[in-house]
Amino acid sequence: MARTILDVTRLITRAAHPVATGVDRVELAYALRALSAAPERAGFAAVVGNRAVPLPRESVGPFVAALDAKWRMGGADDAAARRLAARLGAPAPAVAPQRSAPDDAARRALKLRGAALLAIRRPAAERGDVYVHVSHIRLDRPEPFAGIRRAGAALTVLVHDLIPIRFPEYGREGEDARHRLRMTTALDHGTALIANSGETARDLAAFASEIGRAAPPIVTAPLGIERGFSSDAPALDAAKPYFVALGTIEPRKNHLLLLHVWRRLAERLGEATPTLVLVGRRGWENEMVIDLLERAPAIRAHVVEINDLPDTALAALVKGARALLFPSFAEGFGLPLAEALALGAPVVASDLAAFREIAGDRVERLDPLDGPAWEQAALDYADAASPRRAAAVARAKAFAPAGWDEHFRLAATATGGL
Length: 418
Known about the structure:
- It holds the Pfam family Glycos_transf_1.
- Keywords: Transferase.
- Residues 234-363 form the Glycosyl transferase family domain.
- It is a single chain.
- By secondary structure, the protein is an alpha/beta fold.
- It has 18 helices and 13 strands.
- The strands form three sheets. It has a seven-stranded mixed β-sheet with strand order 3-2-1-4-5-6-7, sandwiched between helices. A three-stranded parallel β-sheet has the order 8-9-10, sandwiched between helices. The protein has a three-stranded parallel β-sheet with strand order 11-12-13, sandwiched between helices.
- Helix 10 links the parallel strand 8 and strand 9 (275-279).
């Protein structure tokens, strides 16, 4: 019987990390979906060296459960959440109950690595199977995916974005070449591709044309929202107004604009300046941003960096904010935007095609280069009696978030009916 074989290489490599990235969330959602299928219908695999090898389902299940619990509730920094609440004048959050030992997911990942090495000579997929890869990881090694096709299995790749190719100036040196190789692997060996947005699908088709490849069928399936990001989630009850920007601190995310805006706000408002909370790790090519964060007195007084928040604390933080600020220059999807709207939180975002596709008029869109417009938005949204913010809240509450069930329905032809 034909099976769907899900590649969980990324989850195994990320098991020691305390919180999930957007791509982590996607692979985790696929893993939970595959585990809900009958054993004869869904299996698991990982890439080891130049081969894709099978993984024992009876070991993958407990590993995924431990990782899910760790990222949602128990493995992140509750102390950081309490410090942030104190800074914002909010009650300390309850400590999340542990569902498993903090290192349980990492320990189980090590066992899976061992199982993969023992299975190194066994094929991960057979003729008629559909091998599904949803994270970009290892796509810069064409050999494992060529081997899957030689075995007679179909190959489906979920593409998140082509930003390193379209905007190489925002990434690490050499990342554009690596991403070209990833996308070429997907085009050369994939029998179907899943795009997380119409914008990504268009970029993918354009890249195929650019390099002279015939793209396989491309299915557009927007990403789902995790169950913790819902309108009934509690909000952080902060005494002081604050805004949130969520994402790795890297040039593409345009944190520099926000920091210049906040320095201007501090000059105008002094102690009444709202707090800006930056949720995300420091990335690359950030010298000026880091200088502002570490050396500018006005920024140090009114901007907070935080990492490793449990999902429950992150949802409360976003829902209690005056707005989520999302001034990116480029996005393939924009999961934080969808999560904020699902919580009923207002969003001020760049005027990007992907954001228009996800949210339509549910968000207020501004030019990512228009500093005065972002400054005025912050002033207006910080006002407790702001009609501008009240209208944005009403728009957010009218947002109908896509669920993972809808994603899998749209992608079913590419995933073997997962």
